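Please discuss these two lines.
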Amino acid sequence: MENPLQSVLILLAAAVLVVIVFRVLKLPAILGYLLVGIAIGPYGFGLIADAEDTRNLAEFVPSSRRCAALCSASGRLRLC
């Protein structure tokens, strides 16, 4: 897929569906996330290709969470 937003939406939708099923089966949600990543990634069904945009997004999300956590811990940013 060429559009990174479409890739993210597919990943998010698949993760939500699989985690709901895993919760019903009383299995840990992390196993659902791992299964989705393996299944729709470039080495599974290939719905999300191994592209530079995907790698950039994977690097951006954790760093933005860390920044938000540090800012909220210091009291300078209110997230709620």
User: Anything to note?
Assistant: Residues 22 and 28 are 7 Å apart (CA to CA). The helical segments are 4-24, 29-40, 52-74.
